[in-house]
Automatic annotation (TrEMBL):
<keyword id="KW-0489">Methyltransferase</keyword>
<feature type="compositionally biased region" description="Low complexity">
    <location>
        <begin position="371"/>
        <end position="386"/>
    </location>
</feature>
<dbReference type="Pfam" id="PF13489">
    <property type="entry name" value="Methyltransf_23"/>
</dbReference>
<dbReference type="GO" id="GO:0008168">
    <property type="term" value="F:methyltransferase activity"/>
</dbReference>
<feature type="compositionally biased region" description="Low complexity">
    <location>
        <begin position="425"/>
        <end position="439"/>
    </location>
</feature>
<dbReference type="GO" id="GO:0032259">
    <property type="term" value="P:methylation"/>
</dbReference>
<feature type="compositionally biased region" description="Basic and acidic residues">
    <location>
        <begin position="443"/>
        <end position="453"/>
    </location>
</feature>
<protein>
    <submittedName>
        <fullName>S-adenosyl-L-methionine-dependent methyltransferase</fullName>
    </submittedName>
</protein>
<feature type="compositionally biased region" description="Pro residues">
    <location>
        <begin position="393"/>
        <end position="407"/>
    </location>
</feature>
<feature type="region of interest" description="Disordered">
    <location>
        <begin position="355"/>
        <end position="453"/>
    </location>
</feature>
<keyword id="KW-0808">Transferase</keyword>
<dbReference type="InterPro" id="IPR029063">
    <property type="entry name" value="SAM-dependent_MTases_sf"/>
</dbReference>
Length: 453
């Protein structure tokens, strides 16, 4: 078995064989696959912080890249699958775009693929399509299907080697690794063929209570109804914002797609997911579904609070407080003493015919970069061997990147963003394509009850 940590040499050899067999030779475009060697690259691509493994490419993205995290991502993926009923929004259009067509290779790009669950799911549903999953550190523990490959890359260095190539581009929960999310939306749109669809999902760090209002955070005085999990996410927001991440991307998804000159027909919706099996469905099927997503969501959040521990400790939080985040979250979720919803923002849009402007920089936000030329004239993301940055100018000093906003101590309308109100209006109008029983109805305040696992 190949691993993200050091592995025996025979496992390395097997991994390399699979990498070549499943990746490069299968794909007709962008021969930029990074041939992974777990002994060599495990050192170069990964690092250890506070007992967890992290990517070593992008300082901004500060969640682990290890088996525990990949398990968490898989549960989150399953939660979305159950809550949404399928892998993608706008089903009729996605299926039409990806239908087999004589002489046309259909292609799907998953930016920030993580454990690769979505990419592999799409590869299995559309076996004639080619799927590429890009990540700082994609999971390499099992080989993907033949029509899917994973590529090690930092997409904030630019994706010009992929411009105009894909029918579907997808990105889910990647905002932590992105400084300029407006740039990212534009760059993802550029990877689409005209008529192709961009699908984006970001989770909000703002938790809601069972009345679907902002959840009060715990400050340590044991006030009933307050939440340590909400406090953890609130501190996560403060910390990641200070470090420069687009942690508020969920609130801006719709507006940024709307603003992108390459995109039309922008739509959005919000899914509210109960954290823990506390919400009652209207029918036995809906009840079962809510219970399943609630249990998955609880597992995702108890792990997330632990995954954030290295970030908090690195940022100088008191270890006793960080342990309280974990213990408090475990207690309130395991005993269902606080009933909360997690909020996921979905937005999708169609690539129009507007040509890509030629004179704009490739890399995120600033500094133009160049990809290495491949034999076919296209440009590669990573070539084999050592990692190569596409930046031609040195990255700015950290202080220039991180302009810390004032530290917030509570959620304010400014923090949450003025777009929330307009999102609520538009999500109701775009809800019809979704499975009934999803959490779209924001006025729905049905009673709640505790349930055992
Ligand atoms: C929270 S995980 C989500 C994974 C997957 N999209 C999912 O929904 O299961 C975010 C992933 O985005 C990747 N990521 C974040 N910033 C990135 C960047 N600049 N370039 C490539 N991958 C990035 C991370 O390495 C991580 O695997």
């Amino acid at each position: 078995m190949a691993s993200t940590s050091a592995a025996p040499h025979d496992a390395d050899a097997e991994m390399d064989r699979q990498s070549v067999a499943t990746g490069y030779s299968q794909m007709s475009i962008t021969p930029s696959v990074y041939s992974f060697n777990s002994s060599r690259d495990g050192v170069a691509l990964l690092r250890n912080i506070q007992g967890r493994t992290f990517n070593a490419q992008n300082e901004l993205y500060f969640l682990p890249a290890d088996e525990v995290e990949y398990d968490r991502l898989e549960k989150q993926h399953l939660m979305h699958l159950v809550a949404c009923g399928r892998l993608y929004q706008e089903a009729e259009k996605v299926q039409r775009l990806l239908a087999p067509e004589e002489g046309v290779q259909k292609r799907i790009l998953d930016l920030g693929t993580g454990a690769g669950n979505w990419a592999v799911g799409m590869a299995m549903e559309f076996p004639h399509a080619q799927v590429v999953g890009v990540d700082l550190a994609p999971s390499t523990t099992w080989p993907p299907p033949d029509n899917c490959r994973f590529e090690f890359d930092d997409f904030t260095l630019g994706l010009s080697h992929y411009y105009g190539s894909f029918d579907v581009v997808h990105s889910r929960s990647t905002a932590n690794g992105i400084k300029d999310f407006e740039w990212f939306v534009n760059e993802a749109a550029r990877c689409l063929k005209p008529g192709g669809i961009l699908l984006m999902i970001e989770g909000s760090v703002e938790m809601l209570n069972s009345n679907k209002e902002p959840q009060e955070v715990a400050w340590g005085d044991d006030t009933p109804g307050q939440s340590w999990m909400a406090r953890t996410l609130f501190e996560c927001y403060n910390t990641m914002k200070r470090r420069g991440s687009s942690i508020d991307a969920a609130w801006r998804l719709y507006d940024l797609m709307h603003k992108c000159p390459l995109l039309d027909e922008v739509q959005t919706k919000i899914n509210l997911i109960p954290v823990g099996p506390w919400e009652v469905g209207k029918t036995p099927d809906e009840d079962r579904e809510k219970r399943i997503v609630g249990i998955l969501m609880r597992q995702v959040f108890t792990e997330l609070v632990r995954a954030l521990q290295p970030l908090f400790l690195t940022e100088g939080y008191d270890p006793v407080l960080v342990q309280k985040f974990i213990d408090g979250t475990d207690y309130e979720l395991n005993n269902l003493v606080v009933h909360m919803y997690a909020k996921y923002h979905f937005a999708w849009a169609t690539r129009n015919d507007v040509p890509i402007p030629e004179d704009e920089p490739e890399a995120e936000g600033k500094g133009a970069g160049e990809g290495a030329n491949n034999d076919d004239g296209s440009q590669s993301g990573n070539s084999s061997g050592t990692r190569r940055s596409r930046r031609t100018t040195p990255p700015p000093e950290p202080d220039a990147i991180l302009e810390p906003p004032p530290r917030a101590t509570r959620w304010t309308p400014e923090l949450i963003g003025s777009t929330t109100a307009s999102l609520r209006g538009s999500m109701v109008s775009s809800a019809s394509g979704w499975r009934s029983g999803s959490s779209m109805d924001m006025s729905d305040t049905r009673s709640v009850r505790d349930m055992d696992d």
